[in-house]
Amino acid sequence: MSSHHEVPAPIVVECDLDEPPEKVWRALTEKKLLEAWLAAEPAPSQAAAPAAPAAPARSRPRAPAFEWEVSGGEPYRWLCFRWRDGSPGSENGAGVIESTVRFELSPHGSGGTHLRLIHGDFRVVSLSTQTFGSRSAHRITRRPTAAAQRLPYTSPLKLAA
Amino acid sequence: MPEAQIFRTLADPTRRAVFERLCQREMNVSELKAGFDVSQPAISQHLAALKNSGLVRERREGRNTFYRSDPSGLAPLAEWVERYRVFWPKRLQALKRVLKEIEP
Fold first, then answer.
1. By the CB < 8 Å criterion, does A47 face chain B?
2. How many angstroms separate the CA atoms of B46 and B11, rounded?
3. Whether the complex's predicted ipTM surpasses the cut of 0.85
4. What total of structural domains would you count in chain B?
């Protein structure tokens, strides 16, 4: 049974990019570029790729509804987002889930970047603190569009009962 | 948003410990209390919160009530995390495409 009921372990995703950290940094910090990959639907070519068979409709949970805000960083090295999940006002007083998304950049190969993404530190915040403060000049808020919510998210993970 | 409620319910360390003990076997309140340095009413409150979130089930037998964790109550939480496990690789694929389009 052990670990099944522990707070979810952080999600870690790593990849190698052809572009240097300076360029990746731009894609993480310039609003237009950031939204182009973080808040957009996959390009049609991507959606049509044969690699990911579509899940049956009944196993599609709703797509994440989220907003984020920069909470720290060091140019070309790392960047943190405070991340919130959930639609305000749609819960029964349970609050929204807040978490931390951290991007770590390091030079890789000849001029590329190794990117490590860590999404963790999951916690619940109350409804009264649901909206991000306006103190941050870097505030970026985005809710998925109706189109984005049609993405075929799957949920293969089942807990051992 | 049941996953937020589950997160919140398990955020309390004592409640979490109650849930974990009841994963091992079924117990009544006094058996359960023996492992904790808190009052019986406090244990009962934790049990009520766990039941309310679907994490613990109770079974009555005569005058006794027995409690047991229901690990399947964690499913919404697992699904929530799983959405992001699917989400991030897709987004990083999109990042790769955006990077190709940035002017030097």
1. no
2. 12
3. no
4. 1
DSSP secondary structure letter of residue A140: B
Question: Which pLDDT tens digit goes with each residue over B37-47?
Answer: 999 999 999 99
> Could you tell me if B103 lies within 8 Å of chain A, comparing CB atoms?
no
Rg of chain A over CA atoms, in angstroms? 17
Mean of the per-residue pLDDT values of chain A: 68
CATH of domain A7-37+60-147: 3.30.530.20
Name residue B64's beta-bridge partners: B61
How far apart are alpha carbons A77 and A12 in whole angstroms? 17
pLDDT at A89 over 50: no
Q: Are strands B64-69 and A66-74 parallel, antiparallel or unpaired?
A: unpaired
pLDDT at A78 exceeding the cut of 60: yes
Q: What CATH number did the domain enclosing B21 receive?
A: 1.10.10.10
Three-state DSSP class for residue A45: helix
Note whether A12 contacts B: Cβ–Cβ < 8 A. no
Picking from A36, A46, A119, the nearest residue to B84 by CB comes out as A119
Domain with B53, as residue range(s), is 2-101
Longest dimension (CA), chain B: 76
Report how far residue A112's alpha carbon sits from residue B33's, in angstroms, rounded to the nearest whole number.
Answer: 57
Which pLDDT band, with edges at 50, 70 and 90, does A149 fall under?
Answer: very low
The DSSP bridge partners found for residue A123 are A98
Place of tokens 């994963």: B23
Q: Considering all CA atoms of chain A, what is the largest pairwise distance in Å, rounded to the nearest integer? A: 52
